[in-house]
Known about the structure:
Elements: E1 7-11, H1 16-27, E2 31-36, H2 42-49, H3 54-57, E3 58-62, H4 72-75, E4 80-83, H5 101-120, E5 128-132, H6 142-146, E6 151-152, H7 160-166, H8 169-188, E7 192-197, E8 199-201, H9 211-222, E9 231-236, H10 237-249, E10 255-259, E11 262-265, H11 266-276, E12 297-298, H12 301-306, H13 313-326
Parallel strand pairs: 1-2, 1-4, 2-3, 4-5, 5-7, 6-12, 7-10, 8-9
Antiparallel strand pairs: 9-11
Helix pairs in contact: 1-10, 5-8, 7-8
Amino acid sequence: MSGEGKVVCVTGASGYIASWLVKLLLNRGYTVHATVRSLDDPKKTEHLLAFDGAKERLLLFEANLSVEGSFDSAVSGCVCVFHTASPVILTSVYEPKVTDPQKELLDPAVKGTLNVLKSVVKVKSVKRVILTSSMAAVMFTDRLAESAGGVVDETWFSDQVFCERLKIYYHLAKTLAEDAAVKFSKENGLDLVVINPGYVIGPLLQPTLNFTSEGFMNFIEKGKEVFPDRIYILVDVKDSVVAHILALEKPEANGRYCMVGYLIRAQEIMMILDKLYPDRGYSLRYKDNCVEAIPYSISTAKAESLGVEFTPFEVSLKDTIESLKEKKFMNP
């Protein structure tokens, strides 16, 4: 096992991506320092403690993004820190779901990221930091509308003014947090690798329903749209986590990595659902077999050069639904 004898830290360990990250790191032999907001909340800790290897190689730490120095103990002795912790509140273009964007999203994302990195610079053993950012920090810019037929890749950056204009504060928070992390890392000599997943789907490990899974479930069950343009930018949670681990284990990993396995319209998702679950009436949710072309593409070249092999969409879709049903979030 490549992680034997190595200690790594995962912040926000009870989250959707982070729970899978802890599980797969333990599977690979790593000792994991996992931070949660409260050690007294069994919904944050019990599923982590149940993983294979947890008894021997998982240590839980309580840490708060808003408190400087809160992560000092967790990162001590680690060779790598995976910073996944960040508030997730997706906002509609038309109806923001936050009342105070600065307090609820922007400050926790930016100041929280810097607080983690301030803890990291105190620790000589840390060789690399891997930041979980988002495609929200990549492609929300006027450039997308101006680049019909263009290819979105790692050189793209979301525009602060664009995000503020559309009141998409989660996207703004991710953009500002990534920018702050890159600047801090350059100033302090940290080796930073950034993973930018799309909208994450796939099976859940944590006992609670996370925001992204809930949004996708609402679309599947009720036809509600998460994005008004009806285009879904998706990635399997396990593919995203594999990218994080490869970013640790491959010395040549650098910069940022767009992680999008599927660029797909809502109507096409319904057509696939109809094949997978023909008795659930998904055929009533689309009119014909003509799916409008998507006016841009997203490059997978850099992610694939890292060694990522994307899961087929039908597999991810079925895994998502079966997991939601198993955990009784969705009707059987």
